[in-house]
Amino acid sequence: MTADNYPPDNAAGQPDNAAPTYRSTQKRAPSIPPVVVPATLGELSKPLFGHNNLTENDSDLTRQHNAKPQGERIIVAGRLLDEGLRPASGHLIEIWQTNAAGRYIHAADQHDAPLDPNFTGAGRTVTDADGWYRFTTVKPGAYPWGNHTNAWRPAHIHFSLFGPSFLSRLVTQMYFPADPLLALDPILQSVADATERARLISILDFDLTQPGWALGYRFDITLRGNNQTPTES
Amino acid sequence: MKNATPSQTIGPFFAYSLTSTKYGRRLLASNRIDSVSGTQIRVKGQVFDGDGEPVPDAMLEIWQADPEGRLAGANDGANIKFTGFARAATDQDGTFIFETVKPGRFHTSNDILQAPHISVIVFARGILTHLHTRIYFADETSNDNDPILAAIEDPNRRVTLIAVPDSDGNGYTNYRFNIRLQGEEETVFFQWS
User: Fold this and answer.
1) How many CB atoms lie within 10 A of CB A28?
2) Does B14 lie at the interface with A, CB-CB under 8 angstroms?
3) Residue B3, domain member (yes or no)
4) What DSSP state is assigned to residue B92?
5) Is residue B156 less than 8 Å (CB to CB) from chain A?
6) First and final CA of chain B: distance in angstroms?
7) Distance between CA A106 and CA A143 in Å, rounded?
8) Is A176 domain-assigned?
9) Does the pLDDT value for residue A50 go beyond 70?
10) Residue A113's pLDDT band (boundaries 50, 70, 90)?
11) Which residues of B touch A182 (CB under 8 A)?
12) Per-residue pLDDT at A233
């Protein structure tokens, strides 16, 4: 692996940290541009940890307690790819989300919506040989936040991903299609380009949907790295 | 060819999934890196915003070489039992602590030997695309010849990446390393190419 796998131009489509309509950025976005330097083996190698310790229930958020959680059960699945559109296999994905009522279990979430004793809202899995991952969960709810008057976050699932190198690290959010709150959300709208923004919105997918059981949403993710043109067909 | 999926903020509510056992979940990574060799160190610091206020909802991840300068996950480190990875959330005072070992030196792709350092990623509410920085150590004379530090044009800013010796013992060599996201003494952040 060489440093020219990570041209700065490939950061196109990433949100600028100075995003005026997202209030929390105002005192947290660096004011000085980053120093551009060539990556070393330290940045281009892959962190190792815990991948082998996952259990089946880690990827099924509806089976982590004694009873089933409230809400609409859904399947969320997709493929993890590198910039050369090759499957990224064996990589850790961690997710977290609200329950169906729009409440996080996190102690700092004070939204007046009920907690669900049968739902934590955290999951993790490792992509298979073809880059596929799959979670079973419940559809998260919208919730209010303090960004501006009457601000509401659209329903979303947080995704944390590792890839082939420290530079592939990605934390993002998955949204749901046809949600009228998407156009009003400063965090999603921080991605300036509409085509790039649309990549964060999952697709209702009847190939993933299990008849009589759960709707399926497809969410494919591309990680930085290995962006040479594939040489094999 | 396709660019990477856009990043989004980690938000304020990641802890129950990523950094805390308070919610009954087993963590995959803690704020500690174990090693059978090397100098045990503790790096403690605070994250501050542009007003100098502590950031109580940041997550830091570190990634480093072992004491011999080998990286887990790289070809030269394939056989060592050393993950080189840890993560920590900041507390109400914006404070984080990592317990690890002093990393060894390794070369750049241009064969220049780097000073001992720890790679750092900063996530937080209000940060849409995570930030990359590095921790160097004040007691390493090799800092003077480090190619990445040298790439920082303003020498006055290099000091923002230098962890300084701290008091207290507990079997560790202690360092202090603060991160300032914005404003006076703003930490140097990198874009790796």
Assistant:
1) 26
2) yes
3) no
4) T
5) no
6) 17
7) 14
8) yes
9) no
10) very high
11) none
12) 33
User: Total domain count for chain A?
Assistant: 1
- The CATH code of the domain that includes A91 is 2.60.130.10
Token pair listed for A2: 């060489």
Touching B: A residues 69-88, CB under 8 Å: 81, 83-85
- Show which of residues 43-62 on chain B sit within 8 Å of chain A, judged by CB atoms: 49-51, 53, 55, 57, 61
Q: How far apart are alpha carbons A46 and B63 in whole angstroms?
A: 9
Sign of CA dihedral A170, B106, A8, B90: positive
Domains of chain B: total: 1
Residue of chain A nearest B75, judged by CA positions: A45
Q: Which B residues in the span 75-114 are in contact with A, Cβ-Cβ below 8 Å?
A: 77, 83-85, 106-110, 114
Across the interface, do B127 and A25 touch by the CB < 8 Å criterion?
yes
For A180-205, give one letter per residue: b (16+ CB within 10 A) or e: ebbeebbbbbbbeeeebbebbbbeeb
Q: What residues in chain B have per-residue pLDDT under 50? A: none
Query: Active-site positions of A?
Result: 104, 143, 153, 156, 158
A37 inside domain: no
Q: Domain for residue A46, yes or no? A: no
| Residues of B whose CB is below 8 A from A120 | 16, 23-25
The CATH number linked to B142 is: 2.60.130.10
Here the tokens at position A154 are 């659209």
Question: Alpha-carbon torsion B45, B50, B54, B60, what sign?
Answer: negative
Read off the pLDDT of each residue in A36-41 and give the average, rounded to a whole number: 94
| A175-231 confidence digits (pLDDT tens) | 999 999 999 999 999 999 999 999 999 999 999 999 999 999 999 999 998 754 444
Decide if the complex's ipTM is over 0.90: yes
- The tens digit of pLDDT for each residue in A71-85 reads 999 999 999 999 888
Asked if residue B19 belongs to a domain, the reply is: yes
Q: Which domain holds residue A104?
A: 51-222
A95-118 core/surface letters (b: 16 or more CB in 10 A; e: else): bbbbbbbbbbbbeebeeebeebeb
Nearest to B128 among A43, A169, A190 (CB): A190
Q: Is B109–A41 a contact, with Cβ atoms under 8 angstroms apart? A: yes
Has residue B146 been placed in a domain? yes
Are A84 and B1 in contact (CB < 8 Å)?
A: yes
Cα–Cα distance measured from residue B93 to residue B105, given in angstroms and rounded to the nearest whole number: 33
Buried b (16+ CB within 10 A) or exposed e, B163-184: beeeeeeeebbbbebbbbbbee
